[in-house]
């Protein structure tokens, strides 16, 4: 998938937004939905996606949506920090397959980091167990 092209509403995050696929929900309001990444690169790896725009990447998000969306990204990151007290937080986002993007609905990754603990390799980590993800979603959600 190149950087340019049509939004495909069959992507997994669009299905999650429509309630057609499950997620471990952390936070939701009219602007954004946050949920656990099921292939986490660290404990507490959380995704934040915009709800109002069919944007494949950050470059496509309408400018007036950027502020409200980024406010939610920050808010969820603060919740991750309060809930899990990591030593650091990596926040990143990919645009286009050559940049590492695999799901083509805009999302930011919020990845808590601990001193001396290496982050997993994006796209190469195993699926986390459901009980762990459910508990993390509850703990982070309560802190957002
Ligand atoms: P990216 O490669 O930046 O597009 O990131 C997509 C992310 O979505 C990856 O980190 C995947 O582990 C994650 N992912 C894929 N399918 C699901 C799903 N059904 N629920 C939660 N996370 C998912």
Structural class: alpha+beta
State the shape.
globular
Mind describing the biggest β-sheet? 5 strands, antiparallel
Number of helices: 3
CATH H-level homologous superfamily name: HIT-like
Radius of gyration: 14 Å
Reported CATH architecture: 2-Layer Sandwich
Spatial sequence of strands, sheet with the most strands: 1-2-3-5-4
Distinct small molecules bound, one entry per kind: adenosine monophosphate
Mean pLDDT: 96
Q: Tell me what portion of residues adopts beta-strand conformation.
A: 15-25%
Top-tier CATH class? Alpha Beta
Percentage of residues assigned to helices: 25-40%
Kindly describe this structure:
There is one protein chain. With 144 residues, this protein is an alpha+beta fold. The model has no long low-confidence stretch (mean pLDDT 96). The chain has one domain (12-143): HIT family, subunit A. Helix 2 packs across helix 3. The chain has a five-stranded antiparallel sheet with strand order 1-2-3-5-4. The radius of gyration is 14 Å and the shape is globular. It has helices at 12-17, 63-84, 130-143; strands at 25-28, 32-36, 46-50, 88-92, 108-113. Adenosine monophosphate (AMP) binds at residues 12, 23, 37-39, 47, 94, 100-103.
List the helices and strands and how they pair.
Elements: H1 12-17, E1 25-28, E2 32-36, E3 46-50, H2 63-84, E4 88-92, E5 108-113, H3 130-143
Antiparallel strand pairs: 1-2, 2-3, 3-5, 4-5
Helix pairs in contact: 2-3
Bound molecules: adenosine monophosphate (AMP).
């Amino acid at each position: 998938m190149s950087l340019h092209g049509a939004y495909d509403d069959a992507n997994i995050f669009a299905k999650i937004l429509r309630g057609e696929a499950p997620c471990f929900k952390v936070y939701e309001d009219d602007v954004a939905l946050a949920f656990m990444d099921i292939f986490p690169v660290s404990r507490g790896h959380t995704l934040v996606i915009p709800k109002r725009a069919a944007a494949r990447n950050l470059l496509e998000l309408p400018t007036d949506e950027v502020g409200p969306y980024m406010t939610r990204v920050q808010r969820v990151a603060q919740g991750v920090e309060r809930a899990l007290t990591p030593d650091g937080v990596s926040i990143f986002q990919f645009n286009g397959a050559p940049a590492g993007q695999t799901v083509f609905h805009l999302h930011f990754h919020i990845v808590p980091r601990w001193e001396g603990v290496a982050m997993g390799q994006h796209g190469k980590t195993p699926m986390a167990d459901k009980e762990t993800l459910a508990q993390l979603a509850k703990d982070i959600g309560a802190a957002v």
